[in-house]
Design goal:
Number of strands: 15
Structural class: alpha/beta
Radius of gyration: 24 Å
Shape: globular
Largest sheet: 9 strands, mixed
Strand order of the largest sheet: 14-13-12-11-7-10-9-8-15
Oligomer: single chain
Helix content: 25-40%
Order of helices and strands: EHEHHEHEHEHEHEHHEEEEEEEHHEH
Number of helices: 12
Bound molecules: 6-O-phosphono-beta-D-glucopyranose
Length: 487
């Protein structure tokens, strides 16, 4: 494993209180992520106290942690590292109350030499967040602490405003980290590098040259054991008002004066402030057939498992450029792409039948997978006589750099940032409240859900929504294979 460069981790040992410790996110991402950060030496000492509704003890929690590593950690788990990690785990059932939590924290902190910090991670649904904040406060664990709040942050404008106010009764703003793991993805940060570290694209990054933008995140995944959470949430709250809008902000924002928390938040929030309200008529809500018969789902459920919408940013850079967003469960493919369609040039100089424009506009495409890719497609001449045009592309794959092993998983990156007190990739109260505000009309009068077949790209109306354009996915031409042998 590569050696950790100095300064990338926190200065002090960390006491982590993980609320929702036995839940889906904790098992898939947080426990494996913490294990990696600890075993790779990013954190100078770490103890983790799991808290959840489950009535288990520390050994029971260790078993859950081990099973989660075996299932979800994609690097090697050595016996030595595991034993050290297991020793650092403890567990307090929620029912045991604040006193029990306080004793467990104090006992764990005594094992640190010198100063330490606390990180409370709330991996709980929106309606359980305040109870956890109360417990932290009653246990007297606010000092030297930071708190990471999972999304969705509230369920509408009123609940987000009230959650922020109540949170501020206990924590100061600089202690609060509202996480959105899409911003921790390496390719999301690469959007900023690509846009602002190069002279080539920024001059054409506006309504004069860009025709429309797609942010498309279909998933093949179903709900797993998350029906309880998902029934309350649905695709819009789970993915759009959170991840997709955050990505949209990185794609659309003005250059910040520095890559620091305040300038970045300011530019992102300007994008959100310029967003026009999402109109119910510009939204397609879908539900896959069979959803209503799944365990934990209301047989008459109106929850959308897919959403596609059109939105606008009414500022000088983007006025009139539609942004099409789509995401859903049980769809045909799992992908995460941003696709930028450039305006088409005049075509009359090309002879009839040349194929100019026949395969859509030229595009810049970002693939937000951990092994990220980027492609620029353009028309070029087919070799031989006459003037026949083909769609060609320049492609870059992270694989080409040989540095794919250095990529930190999004949660790892963000947990590390929160431990260091770095807010750059986290959301502000203002930004989140504004996003709920632009969502109000949709949340108050959602269009009816339309059924779609599992394994498809959504209900038919997704095509009307984007017409006269077309969804880029499924791709007509596949990505070049990273070994360089493909088409
Ligand atoms: C989570 C959503 O925040 O993001 C899930 O709650 C979704 O429903 C997941 O599947 C997608 O994240 P990733 O990193 O796998 O693209």
């Amino acid at each position: 494993m590569a050696k950790v460069p100095p300064g990338v981790g926190p200065r002090f040992p960390q006491l982590v209180v993980l609320f929702g410790a036995t839940g889906d996110l904790s098992r898939r991402k947080l426990l494996p992520g913490l294990y990696h950060l600890v075993s790779a030496g990013f954190i100078p000492g770490c103890r983790i106290i799991g808290v959840s509704l489950d009535d288990i003890d520390a050994d029971g929690f260790r078993k859950i942690a081990r099973a989660s590593l075996d299932e979800f950690f994609n690097r090697k788990v050595t016996d030595r590292d595991w034993e050290a990690f297991a020793r650092s785990l403890d567990y307090v059932p929620l029912g045991a109350g604040p006193e029990a939590l306080r004793s467990a924290v104090e006992a764990a902190e005594q094992t640190f030499e010198g100063e330490s910090r606390r990180l409370h991670y709330l991996s709980v649904p929106p309606n359980a967040a305040l109870a956890a904040v109360r417990m932290i406060s009653e246990a007297g664990l606010v000092d030297r602490a930071r708190i990471v709040m999972e999304k969705p942050f509230g369920t509408d404008l009123a609940s987000a405003v009230s959650l922020n106010a109540k949170l501020h009764d206990v924590f100061t703003e600089d202690q609060i980290f509202r996480i959105d793991h899409f911003l921790g993805k390496e390719p999301a940060q690469n959007i900023l590098a690509f846009r602002f570290a190069n002279g080539l694209f920024e001059p054409i990054w506006n309504r004069n040259f860009i025709d429309h933008v797609q942010i498309d995140v279909p998933e093949t995944l179903g709900l797993g054991k998350r029906a309880g959470f998902y029934e309350q949430t649905g695709a819009y709250r789970d993915m759009v008002v959170t991840h997709l809008f955050q990505i949209l902000a990185f794609m659309a924002m003005e250059p910040p004066t520095a890559l620091e928390p305040a300038p970045i938040s300011e530019e992102k929030n300007k994008v959100f402030r310029s967003m026009l309200p999402i109109l119910p008529g510009d939204v397609v809500r879908g539900q896959y057939t069979g959803y209503r018969t799944e365990e934990g789902v209301d047989p008459e459920s109106d929850t959308e498992t897919l959403i596609a919408l059109k939105c606008y940013i009414d500022n000088w850079r983007w006025a009139g450029v539609p942004f099409f967003l789509r995401t859903g469960k049980r769809m045909a493919e799992g992908q995460r792409i941003i696709s930028i369609a450039f305006r088409e040039p005049p075509k009359s100089m090309f002879p009839p039948g040349s194929g100019v424009g026949a395969q859509g506009p030229d595009h810049l495409t970002f693939d937000l997978a951990d092994a990220s890719k980027m492609s620029l497609s353009f028309y070029g001449k087919r070799p031989g006589p006459g003037m026949r045009l083909d769609k060609l592309s320049l492609q870059f794959a992270m694989h080409d750099t040989g540095m794919i092993g250095e990529v930190l998983e999004a949660y790892e990156r963000l947990i590390l940032d929160a431990m260091r007190g770095d807010h750059t990739l986290f959301n502000t109260a203002d930004g989140i409240e504004r996003l709920w505000q632009v969502s109000t009309q949709l949340l108050e009068a959602p269009p009816p859900v339309r059924l779609y077949a599992p394994g498809s790209w959504g209900p038919k109306s997704i095509h009307q929504l984007i017409a006269p354009h077309a969804w880029r996915l499924p791709f007509e031409r596949v990505w070049r294979d990273p070994n360089g042998t493909g088409s």
